[in-house]
Amino acid sequence: MMEQDVLYVSTGNLLNDAMTIIDSARAKAYAAVNVALVERHWLLGKRIAEEELQGENRAEYGASVIKRLSNELTDVLVSFQNIVAGRRFICPR
What we know:
The structure is a single chain. This protein has 3 helices and no strands. It is mainly alpha-helical. The protein has one domain. The relative contact order is 0.13.
């Protein structure tokens, strides 16, 4: 993956140059956040699949583990949907 640079320009138009710098920094920040979110989901799914579900696709047990974990993580702003999305990285069924 190619890292995106924040653009520096000096065209003589301060407003346009500032907007270019701001927009390119914003794009770089969005890309970094997206990578971190994908990694977070994947690692959550891996942890659930390997440790809690033991790599098996046991629907009822898995659903109860995910629901319990979601309830316990509510205080740290991780939603049930995020946990399910993470698990789907490992067990897409």
